[in-house]
Design a protein that fits this description.
279 residues; 14 helices; Serine Threonine Protein Phosphatase 5, Tetratricopeptide repeat; 61% helix
């Protein structure tokens, strides 16, 4: 499947990590890893006292809390210093390690962030936030196989966290593994829907792009047409919807011509045979 404009936006690696879904800081930050596109992840730690690796060192916890405050205040340098101080007091304090990695990642220091996430996971392999965030960092670094591995592990560690399934769907689409992308996007869609999350629309977009590759025209219509307003300039989407309305189960030649003409205008190749079917 060609990479369409909308798909490129969904799998972009530069958004607050990735473009359209900037993360909203929560406390502590490890849970705020921005996924590839759209919005912040659903999973979140509630407050400063709720840790994955609770430290018994009161001074380390105080440094950690100061780091959270500095991060929320827009002071990354202050947050870095505070998290480093927390780690110096307690080398196994994975929450401080995760938060320091998050700041580094947002500062573009990806290799340092990845090394920290890997250190955190060696301490706490069950840490879903570290798996979620390292997947983002790997993807931003262009290490797509590692990103897929991390997202798959997240689906094992926390199968009800939709971000793991969403990440698997994204990486599978990039690797032209449409069937896996479809299945993972459906899992993400169901979990977002159960949580009454607006991110369900992002999952449906991924499902729609997988459906194009699989020539699953009913799913193309059901997932992409409701969001057409933001896809109108995507040649591949228009071409796919044109084909979808030439299928016997939803034959509508007028609609097909409309989408196919738009696809032509955007530079897509619409074969004479396909155009004649729309007449």
């Amino acid at each position: 499947m060609r990479s369409s404009l909308a798909l490129t936006a969904l799998v972009a690696t530069a958004l607050g990590c990735g473009g359209a879904r900037p993360a909203q800081p929560t406390t502590p930050p490890p849970a705020t890893a921005p996924p590839a596109a759209g919005a912040p992840p659903l999973a979140a730690i509630g407050d400063k006292a709720d840790h994955v690796c609770q430290s018994d060192d009161a001074e380390a916890v105080a440094h950690f809390n100061r780091g959270v405050d500095r991060f929320d205040a827009g002071d990354p340098a202050g947050a870095i210093d505070a998290y480093k101080a927390a780690i110096a007091r307690d080398a196994d304090y994975c929450d401080a390690i995760d938060n320091l990695a998050l700041v580094y990642r947002r500062e573009g220091r990806l290799d340092e962030a990845i090394a920290l996430y890997e250190r955190s996971l060696a301490i706490a392999p069950h840490n879903q936030f570290a798996w979620q965030n390292i997947g983002v960092a790997y993807r931003m670094r262009g290490r797509h196989a590692d990103a897929m591995r991390a997202y798959r592990q997240l689906t094992t560690v926390s199968p009800t966290n939709p971000e793991g399934w969403f990440g698997v769907a994204q990486m599978a689409l990039m690797a032209h593994q449409a069937a896996e992308a479809r299945d993972a996007a459906r899992r993400a869609e169901a979990l977002y829907l159960a949580a009454d999350s607006p991110l369900v629309e992002d999952a449906r977009l991924l499902l729609g792009f997988a459906a194009i590759a699989l020539a699953d025209w009913p799913t193309v219509r059901a997932t992409l047409e409701p969001q057409y307003a933001k896809l109108a300039d995507d040649a591949e989407v228009n071409l796919a919807l044109g084909k979808a309305y030439l299928e016997p189960d939803a034959l509508d030649r007028a609609k097909a011509r409309q989408y196919l003409q738009r696809a032509r205008d955007l530079g897509a190749t619409v074969t004479d045979a396909l155009w004649q079917r729309a007449q």
